[in-house]
């Protein structure tokens, strides 16, 4: 599973630990690619700037990781990444949008408490 997000997300274990505990290996982009991803999130996406070139660059990073490390999925570990990437951009891997995962978990918890 590839993990994309801000440097803080990619360099710390709070996302990686639950996956590893579930037996799922998580791969991080190279340090250079982590810097690129972080910069695109902070300078562009967080400011509502969505560029075609950025989308292509992020897709290239993910596709190279998938091919090199034989990955079957990618976690968009920053809510802004779903502004530019989604499942429709990748045919051979599963894409997990952390915003959708968090929303589903919150709704599930709420529904449990209401029962």
UniProtKB/TrEMBL annotation:
InterPro entries: Asp/Glu/hydantoin_racemase, Asp/Glu_race
Spans through the membrane: none
EC number(s) given by UniProt: 5.1.1.13
Isomerase found in the keyword field: yes
Enzyme type, top EC level: isomerase
Residue runs in coiled coils: none
Pfam family, any one: Asp_Glu_race
Keywords of this entry: Isomerase
Stored Gene3D superfamilies: 3.40.50.1860
This protein's name: Aspartate racemase
Signal peptide coordinates: none
Gene Ontology MF annotations: aspartate racemase activity
């Amino acid at each position: 599973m590839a993990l994309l997000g801000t440097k803080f997300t990619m360099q710390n274990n709070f996302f990686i630990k639950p996956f590893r505990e579930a037996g799922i290996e998580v791969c991080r982009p190279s340090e250079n690619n982590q810097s690129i991803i972080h910069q695109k999130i902070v300078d562009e996406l967080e400011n509502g700037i969505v560029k075609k070139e950025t989308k292509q660059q992020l897709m290239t990073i993910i596709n190279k990781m998938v091919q090199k490390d034989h990955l079957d999925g990618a976690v968009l570990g920053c809510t802004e990444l779903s502004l530019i990437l989604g499942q429709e951009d990748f045919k051979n891997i599963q894409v997990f949008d952390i915003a959708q995962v968090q929303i589903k978990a919150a709704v599930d918890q709420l529904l449990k408490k209401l029962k």
